[in-house]
UniProtKB/TrEMBL annotation:
InterPro entries in UniProt: SAM-dependent_MTases_sf, tRNA_(Gua-N-7)_MeTrfase_Trmb, tRNA_methyltr_TrmB_bact
Pfam families tied to this protein: Methyltransf_4 (PF02390)
Residue span of region Interaction with RNA: 154-159
A molecular function (GO) term: tRNA (guanine(46)-N7)-methyltransferase activity
Organism: Halopseudomonas oceani
Name the record gives this protein: tRNA (guanine-N(7)-)-methyltransferase
Function per UniProt: Catalyzes the formation of N(7)-methylguanine at position 46 (m7G46) in tRNA.
Similarity field: Belongs to the class I-like SAM-binding methyltransferase superfamily. TrmB family.
NCBIfam families for the chain: tRNA (guanosine(46)-N7)-methyltransferase TrmB (TIGR00091)
Amino acid sequence: MSDTPELPESADTPNPDSPPRRAIRSFVMRAGRMTEGQQKGIDQGWPRFGLTLDQGMLDLDALFGRSAPRTLEIGFGMGHSLLEMAAAAPEQDFIGIEVHRPGVGALLNGLLTSGLSNVRVFDCDAIEVLNRCIPDGSLDRLLLFFPDPWHKKKHNKRRIVQPAFAEQVRRKLKVGGVFHMATDWEHYAEHMLEVMSAAPGYRNQAGDAGYVPRPEERPVTKFERRGERLGHGVWDLKFERVD
């Protein structure tokens, strides 16, 4: 989420005893105390809903036991929006990715409480998930709501929306699939629009307008409502894979 603290530059220095990893991270590994409900979600929900990189390239029909429209959300925070979307569309399947452990626990606890079965969860780097686990041409939507804006100019390179990422997302979407982004930082919205407008194989669903009105299918979060009270804007972008 966009109120996440920034990661020091020194954190990019690799440990020679650690496995190789990407040099630049677009997210922050945040510590946080687990509530009883979140821990219950991890303990009871992870065996049912959790996914790992070690599983390799997924057979999504086998994973969910059906063929259905598929949505992947990167950075679901505490999981409230993902739960709401999954409950509103039981005929669809959802995969969520989040590195904040209490958020993962909260989502898993919500799945247990609601009885939903159309959600699966990763707790690791989204780039690695896309590379190693999500088949090409398998997603109807990819959602990126309120990612870290890295608003300092020297940190702009950490923003997840970059040309290489746009191409990676395009490969994972079906033709006709949609990459839906939302941010409450105007400069980041402009950056997203610039990157995606130059990315091959996409069409901006807003056309010359640039940004789409807030889609009804995107839940309004507590984070967003707080921003609205403070007079912050929110910008939604939808780019459709056409090639």
